[in-house]
């Protein structure tokens, strides 16, 4: 099913009696049972005001189309959404609705926030077939219950997005990175913490324990006007003088795209996990996973881990202040371990209650966020 309008979508949902697999671009490879309900027919920019830094776009619009429209005006999506296709071996075109539904946020999250923080408003169809609007198209009109943030990160289990209103930002004139070599994870996290605690507006902090040539590489990114970037990277370089060999590289966009998309793990066999944690806990947690490959992003607050197929990373980590998501694995591993971190019983009860209110017939992406059986 590929409805061409919100009204048609609402009619299809109201008439549905069985589960529906909500699909944007189909690039994240998650197995969901049910008849496919595609948002591809809900496409196009409906309002773009570059002077007001606001964009309203239909949820099925390809992400590349959104980024091209913004680039023509010297603007961008601030939250730097990841492209999963090479990591997961999927095809298709990521959509802006899929990005918001999954709250996909890249390295710049440590500076500007997540995708949900730039969603001003949404339109969606709930499980009864009712079209709902929440938030606004400009910042001054964002009032009422914040369903925008509730829908962001719900992975299509609460409603089918039909339109999103976003705040966008200008593309900076240039960028550069302070690059450190040979650090252990503990030292790298300490260096990133020092840089992030400085007043120099770091927009990316990542560590590759096995970077190019197999040697550890830590990157601290600065973005802005040319003279500002030169000054701030120089100050960060001096600030991190005690951490060993370091230098400044300009125009490191390709390096950050590789970090964003976890290119280090492309075409390498094994399961991929995404662990969100306190940065100070990251080195210890990484040491428990017996990983074949690691990438630390968000100053250590995000760990990407490549592990042998079938590894239960959650069991290895035990109880910790964060969550572990299974991103890439064989279907049998996903069925055994589940994709998302199991919720504590009180939180799970609240979650079930919210889903029952928004999707009383249990139509949308049934079981996607449920714990493994």
What does this structure look like?
The protein is of the alpha+beta class and 373 residues long. The protein has 3 domains: 165 residues, Uridine Diphospho-n-acetylenolpyruvylglucosamine Reductase, domain 3 (2-Layer Sandwich), CATH 3.30.465; 87 residues, Alpha-Beta Plaits; 67 residues, Alpha-Beta Plaits, CATH 3.30.70. It is 28% helix and 25% strand. It has 13 helices and 17 strands. The strands form 5 sheets. Strands 3-4-8-6-7 form a 5-stranded antiparallel sheet. It has a 4-stranded antiparallel sheet with strand order 11-12-10-13, sandwiched between helices. Strand 15 and strand 16 form a beta hairpin. The protein is globular, with a radius of gyration of 21 Å. The mean pLDDT is 92.
